[in-house]
Task: inverse folding
């Protein structure tokens, strides 16, 4: 079996699970974007996933993406396939903002005002605004990143001064657990935060909820996820 067939079969299984979860929630599968998490995956497998129909790819590390993304784009151009949309989903330092603005279509991990101001400054030369999601810390785990829920309104208010960014939603990474159901309260909390903020200035465009990974994305969809970040279930173990 070729890499495209292998990944294509895995992607089809993920989409079937997305469809079943959406049906349970009374939603349409088309409402949910699958972002394939490709950290530490070689460019060849990422290109194979795009050829198999994966439209969105997430990367965690700026340095890895710097060499991988051009290789993937070149492979896809050579085979006549469209490049995916690139999402940055790792923790981001301000000194890497220029590289991320240059290489990515969306940033899902904006969690502080100074980072937002720097991304906005760097995005001034883009043809259109950079899509960003505000990462929320729902677990209080050290080193994971994210703004505290009680500080989220202040960050959203600050975003009104960033004309070159478009804040489109919220993102969260719940505490790891062996039981998918254990993540449900966090997913519900993120949805409630998003819904509450939509009535505040700057919150009108908060449509997206990026939550759920390979182990728990079905529960996330039942709780309203519009973006799920799937690595192992598409690409296999790293």
Result:
């Amino acid at each position: 079996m070729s890499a495209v067939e292998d990944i294509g079969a895995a992607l089809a299984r993920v989409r079937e699970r997305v469809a079943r979860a959406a049906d349970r929630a009374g939603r349409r599968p088309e409402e949910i974007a699958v972002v394939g998490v490709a950290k530490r995956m070689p460019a060849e497998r990422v290109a194979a996933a795009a050829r198999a129909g994966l439209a969105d790819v997430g990367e965690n590390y700026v340095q890895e993406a710097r060499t991988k993304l051009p290789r993937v784009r070149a492979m896809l151009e050579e085979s006549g396939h469209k490049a995916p949309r690139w999402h940055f989903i790792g923790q981001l330092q301000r000194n890497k903002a220029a590289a991320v603005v240059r290489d990515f279509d969306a940033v899902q991990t904006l969690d502080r005002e100074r980072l937002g101001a720097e991304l906005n400054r760097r995005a001034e030369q883009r043809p259109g605004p950079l899509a960003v999601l505000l990462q929320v810390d729902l677990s209080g785990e050290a080193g994971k990143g994210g703004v505290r829920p009680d500080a989220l309104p202040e960050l959203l208010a600050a975003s009104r001064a960033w004309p070159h960014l478009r804040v489109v939603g919220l993102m969260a990474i719940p505490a790891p657990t062996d039981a998918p159901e254990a993540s449900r309260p966090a997913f519900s909390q993120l949805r409630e935060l998003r819904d509450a903020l939509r009535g505040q200035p700057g919150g009108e465009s908060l449509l997206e909820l990026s939550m759920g990974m390979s182990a728990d994305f079905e529960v996330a969809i039942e709780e309203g996820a519009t973006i799920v970040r799937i690595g192992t279930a598409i690409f296999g173990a790293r």
